[in-house]
Amino acid sequence: MLSFYASLMDTEDRRGRFEKLYRENRGRMLSAAASKGENELLEVEMNHTHALPPAPPAVEWPPAAVCAPAGSRRVRWLFSITPVLIFVLTFTVAATMYRQLYPAHYGVSLPGAVSASSQPVTAWAEAFCARDGQALLDLYDPEARDDFYRLEYVWSLPGETPVIGLPDGPWPEGGRCSAVTEGDRTVITYWAEKDEPHLWAWTQVVRWREENGTYYGRQESFSRNECVISAAQYEEIYGKTVSGTPMDYRTNQEGLWRELEILAGENEIFQRILTDPALSLEYLLNLFGGEGTVIEDPDGRVTVCYRFSDGSQISQAMFRTANGIWLPGG
């Protein structure tokens, strides 16, 4: 490297000394040339001009010999963007933690696809069962807030604190419900109870929409299923059988079971209904418009085949309590 710069300095020095000598002697050479004629003067000029050493080549800075290798440049580039990457990562983590700690500021967040156990579905069902109108409104699709106040169980006007419920009607107290989600659509089944020991399976369909990472719901349909009039409707609400579901009085509703026995002992009409397997099935599962046929197996098990007015039919096992009333779910 030092020899390279030394050669450059030596060339420049020699060129400078030559030009100085040429300027000092140019007058004398021209005078001499005047006596020799114009042609010889031109020859002298050309000879001395051509005798100048060539200009040194342009030197690129920094010289290629001292440039950093490609690997080093990549390392320096990575170091230069590291602060930016750290800032982005820190901001993302902080925002995620904030959403988890304070979900009310963002609605209800849901990573990925909606599922039956996901936060918005759970929050919606809990708000509905608790009759928390404000919580349900906060979860409702902002683009359909006017529709919220038109729902049959909302008893408030826009701008008022939302009040939900059915006056003097049943309600799914205690959060008894289940949900099945496919894509952006959730079917929620609520088991509503009135003061009278009786259950209804309400069906609510909620459609979800994502906005900036938050899912908001909009009620697509709602049915209290007060009258089940076909086998298709029966299966849609209860499935193939109520055994093992909240409508299974034999296993899941011991409180209602006792209350129904008391009711049958005190009221003649309820005694007639609840001591007949077919009538009890019709009353307790809200069947309407058909007729039940009682089938007893040799081992003593009882099944009711209920035929609806459209010709469709279902079969449901029945259970007889010690006090003589029949309950679905045996």
Give the SSE map.
Elements: H1 2-36, H2 38-50, H3 70-101, H4 119-129, H5 133-139, H6 145-148, E1 177-182, E2 185-193, E3 199-211, E4 214-223, H7 231-238, H8 249-252, H9 254-266, H10 268-274, H11 277-284, E5 291-296, E6 302-307, E7 313-320, E8 326-328
Antiparallel strand pairs: 1-2, 2-3, 3-4, 5-6, 6-7, 7-8
Task: Give an account of the 3D structure.
This protein has helices spanning 2-36, 38-50, 70-101, 119-129, 133-139, 145-148, 231-238, 249-252, 254-266, 268-274, 277-284; strands at 177-182, 185-193, 199-211, 214-223, 291-296, 302-307, 313-320, 326-328. It is elongated. The strands form two sheets. A four-stranded antiparallel beta sheet has the order 1-2-3-4, covered by helices on one side. Helix content is 43%, strand content 18%. With 330 residues, it is of the alpha+beta class. The chain contains eleven helices and eight strands. α1 (2-36) packs antiparallel against α2 and α9 crosses α10.
Rg, nearest Å: 47 Å
Poorly predicted sequence stretches spanning 5 or more consecutive residues: 1-9, 38-53, 58-68, 95-117
Q: What percent of the residues sit in helical stretches (DSSP H or I)?
A: 40-55%
Largest sheet: 4 strands, antiparallel
Based on helices, strands and strand pairing, what is the structural class?
A: alpha+beta
Number of helices: 11
- How far apart are the termini? 99 Å
Q: Averaging pLDDT over every residue, what do you get?
A: 76
Global morphology: elongated
Strand content: 15-25%
> What pattern of helices and strands is seen along the backbone?
HHHHHHEEEEHHHHHEEEE
Instruction: Count all strands and give the number.
Output: 8
